[in-house]
Amino acid sequence: MLERLDPAVAQCPQRLLDLGRAAVDRGAARATLTAITAAGGRAFTLRTELGRAGDAHALWSAFDEGVREFTDSPQVDVIVNNAGIALYASMSDVADASFDEVFAVNAKAPFFILQHGLDRLRDGGRVINISSGAARLATPMLVAYAMIKGALNALTRTLALELGPRDITVNSVEPGIVETDIAFFLSDPRMSELAASWSAFNRIGQPADIADVVAFLASPESRWITGQTIDATGGFLLGPAF
């Protein structure tokens, strides 16, 4: 699937160890570059702290500088908003500062990354926002996180309509429980077994399960899909089997 994207230029902001390799981990970043190069591609990494004032401007400035090593045209084909942090707390326990941090990373950063990036995004390009299946569930311990991911879905729908005349598709992907550092509770064997039982496939989602959905949405074959929120929960939202 990824071979079909060549020679696409993708910009994928990340924070922490979410659904990609950790940009904050230099070893993982180097390994990712090595893998891309070995596959015949070209890549460079950017480091920025999302959720801080001027984060989107700093990110795109670094992109403009880095991409000039490969081309005189600092344009991009695909933008994947993959940055995210979680907040596990009931409504009564959510502190102002915690809410503001999650909103800044999960909603404000994607908004302004896209605001600054749309002039660089080629016609016929792709925008893919990584949301969460939590946005469709009533989960008291994820109330703030789910609400903010719902805001990202609203951005997806609005931009899909706005960018349609440029043949740019905009979609969200909603993962369920995925085996990454953000799902720290999976280190408990009992929680891992329970989480697996919530999937129709009776297993925990893997980063590759989500990456393949993203790769499809980034490909030419997804040209007629826009403004959609793709359920990539492994059947988590289907409900229990009786």
TrEMBL record:
Provenance organism: Parafrankia irregularis
Signal peptide per UniProt: none
Family: Belongs to the short-chain dehydrogenases/reductases (SDR) family.
Protein known as: 3-oxoacyl-[acyl-carrier protein] reductase
Keyword Oxidoreductase: yes
Residue stretches spanning the membrane: none
Keywords: Oxidoreductase
One GO MF term attached to the UniProt entry: oxidoreductase activity
